[in-house]
Task: structure prediction
Amino acid sequence: DIQMTQSPSLLSASVGDRVTITCRASQGISQDLAWFQQKPGKAPKSLIYAASSLQSGVPSKFSGSGSGTDFTLTITSLQPEDFATYYCQQYYTYPPTFGQGTRLDIK
Amino acid sequence: EVQLVESGGGLAQPGGSLRLSCTASGFTFSNYWMTWVRQSPVKGLEWVANIRQDGVAKNYVDSVKGRFAISRDNAKNSIYLEMNSLRAEDTAVYFCVRIFLTSGSGIYDYWGQGTLVTLSS
Result:
């Protein structure tokens, strides 16, 4: 199985900040990577697919990049509603696998 | 509006069975692959199984092969997860998810709210 490793696991930031989360795959996955946002007690919400394509309705403050094994999710101008846990996922091959998550907290 | 509503979760004993359901609305259900994803504090997010539009093609994570069965009824806009020989490690919130693009193992868009399965003797 392909292992997905996110860093950092915990990120503290302030409203208005720009943050970057990294996701690394244990083998090359082309650009078959998605990002999800999850708030406590809620289902994950799909943000990005194909490493950099925004899901419908997702604001452009979210952006993704990368290919092969290294990927990033960048969020600009943090607002209170952006503080959540973020997960990456590879869908390059079966089984699809998720990163362990990055919790974004208010500093 | 796309909606996915899961049901059927609850308390089960190790070795027991449960049947989860997910009813969809707001889109042409028969046009989409669907999948189950579970989440536990121990394992995090874990893909469980998916099913093609016609219900013929199915895929499972190794840990549930032979114990779980995914199925669908397009007339009822529903998918199901029959879970047998349940183990403690199956304790999780189970999400029903729509696959909107069939690239690789599938690209997800809409998620249900989840249903909790708890194993306890």
Remarks:
- The two ends of chain B are 40 Å apart (CA to CA).
- The interface with chain A takes residues 44-47, 59, 61-62, 95, 101, 103-114 of chain B (CB under 8 Å).
- Residues 27 and 40 of chain B are 29 Å apart (CA to CA).
